[in-house]
Amino acid sequence: MTTATVSRWDRFRESFFWYSFKRDKVAIVSFAVLLLMVLAAVFAPLLAPADPYDLAQINIMNSELPPVGMSGADPAFPLGTDAQGRDLLSTILYGTRVSLMIGFGAVILQAFLGILFGLLAGYLGGKVDAILMRIADVQLSFSTLMVAIIVGAVFKASFGNLMFGEIAIYMLIFIIGVAEWPQIARTVRASVLAEKKKEYVDAAKVMGFGTRRIMFRHILPNTLSPIFVIATVQIANAIISEAALSFLGLGMPETQPSLGSLIKSGFDYIQSGSWWITLIPGLVLVVLVLVINLLGDWLRDVMNPRLYKG
Amino acid sequence: MLAFLVQRISQAFLVMFVISVIAFAIQDGLGDPLQEMVGMSVSEEEREAIREELGLNDPMVVQYLRFAGNALQGDLGNSYFYSKPTLEVIAEHLPATLELVIGASLIIVFLSVPIGVYAAIRPQAWLSKFFMGVSTVGISIPVFLTAIVLIQLFSIGVTVNWFPSDTGWGQWLNDFFTTEGGLPSYGRGDELTHLFGTWESGFFTGTGLMHLVLPSVSLASIMLPLFIRLIRAEMMEVLQSDYIRYARAKGLSAGRINFLHALKNTMLPVITVGGVQIGIMVAYTILTETVFQWPGVGLMFLEAITRSDIPLIVAYLMVVGLIFVVTNTLVDLIYGLVNPTVKLTGKKA
């Protein structure tokens, strides 16, 4: 067991993947920043000075305190406080957690739908392909954000404000996952079309394997690298979509804020000069999305077989 | 060509049909017209009678056909909040959104073409690298955040004198930003010119234009990086092609090659992608209009959601759906016209 892990580690260290990562400063910095943010979000309950969900810890007298370094700041609140008197640093840590959860959750859902439909469309072809890809075309032409806004609006109208707030996190994963599946389905379909002409698929057919086995055990593993690339970019897109929906009031409630709803609640106070409530979470959001996008760009360069193999 | 035309148009009708079914399902599932029409004191028998009279007990298909028939005649019901036909409400709000989209499109066209072309011709220049870096960062900034930052910088809270105050224009700009409140960030201003019908334009007055600046720049900011990257990628590909090499070998001037021969072939895919992107901008108008309280259809839609104004939500869906379908079909048809090699099946993949 130990030898197997060691050899796998050695193989990884000698791979092109690791080699190009070591040589790319942007990738290293992006990865480090992302890792830091993910860890901070995961361990938010341990790191945060206060619990923003706990109403007992909030004092309204502390509302709208500026960050340290400005006049009137309280050192107990390093990034200042929001309009309800919550410590902004803690709220941002918890908010990043919510944003990341929705981002990853939505991408897992859209990867599931996209891989399933992409495989079916690409491998079976014919009517299945025509119908699935037409749906994908129409959905994409409407722009995924528009679809998400409409689905969100319908859900909010049918569940009511309070109910929607309670299950918002699952709703958002569902809405963004369903709105964005065509992106992944198209990528999968394109690589399945290329893979299914290859000899190993013919060989598997000759050996009498069933369609399902060929699709999932033989073709799917060979289409994973483009899926990996697009899934990375899609996490960034999902986080932006979530922020947009929350900003419109169709997302996370203020009692359980994500980065988007923090920006929204801060925006109401920007005219009174309290810019930090909205701009600091905004900065965190931009950095988070930017590093994921940069990693996605790097992954695309590494995994693009045309560039790699010559 | 005729087959392509027929196929594209029939597909557009199919999509419109699906949208109308979805819209009908929303109206049917969410809206209870009875609740809006009668009070609590009406008895159950009376309710049943009204229901029968309104045709709410008819089979689904009959109800849908009635809904579709009314929609085709331009009747999408009355808005609960405005108490007038929903299409009238949308017509009142549409000009504001259109002007916002026009403003943003102008910014995109006049900035993305020169920057994209420059970045393609001189890919190694530091200015090109700067533009490409900025566009990577730009893609990662959500449109509402750009809008908020613009408001913070140009509309409120600027107390720093950025411009040299010893010159006349510098002093004027400093005064403008610090004491006169900077650029407006709320609504369309009160000096609008009446054009025709419900169209009140902000394009012809100073304040109207001033109010357009920040919203248009915000809306443009989300599309600009995409267009710069697209134009650059297309232009670089064209510059590699044989006919450009031939033109160089023939000794044509660089300007003539770049701007006459290469740019022409670059713009074809850009225009078709651009057509679709401008349709997608409608989704971003909702965000932009929310930040700037811009009285367009996006803000109207969002208010309709908070007010549970179901008929207005449904009407917005139908109108926006129609705009999407029409732009996409037109873009496809134009692409088919200018590029005859496009496959008749019209598959994009």
Overview of this protein structure:
The complex is a heterodimer of chains A (310) and B (349). Chain A is mainly alpha-helical and 310 residues long. Chain A has a domain at 102-302: MetI-like fold (Orthogonal Bundle), CATH 1.10.3720.10. Chain A contains 15 helices and no strands. Chain A has helices at 2-14, 16-23, 25-42, 44-47, 88-124, 126-141, 144-159, 161-166, 168-195, 199-206, 211-219, 224-247, 259-267, 276-303, 305-309. In chain A, helix 9 packs antiparallel against helix 12 and helix 10 (199-206) packs antiparallel against helix 11 (211-219). The longest helix of chain A is centred in the middle third of the chain and has 37 residues, at 88-124. The radius of gyration of chain A is 23 Å and the shape is globular. The two termini of chain A are 36 Å apart. By secondary structure, chain B is mostly helical. Chain B has a single domain, classed as MetI-like fold (Orthogonal Bundle). Chain B has 13 helices and two strands. Chain B has helices at 2-30, 33-37, 44-54, 60-72, 86-121, 126-139, 143-154, 168-178, 206-239, 242-249, 254-292, 297-306, 310-338; strands at residues 193-196, 199-201. In chain B, strands 1-2 form a two-stranded antiparallel ribbon. In chain B, helix 7 (143-154) packs across helix 9. The model of chain B is unreliable at 343-349 (pLDDT under 50). Chain A: Belongs to the binding-protein-dependent transport system permease family. Chain A: Keywords: Cell membrane, Membrane, Transmembrane, Transmembrane helix, Transport. Chain A: It is found in: Cell membrane.
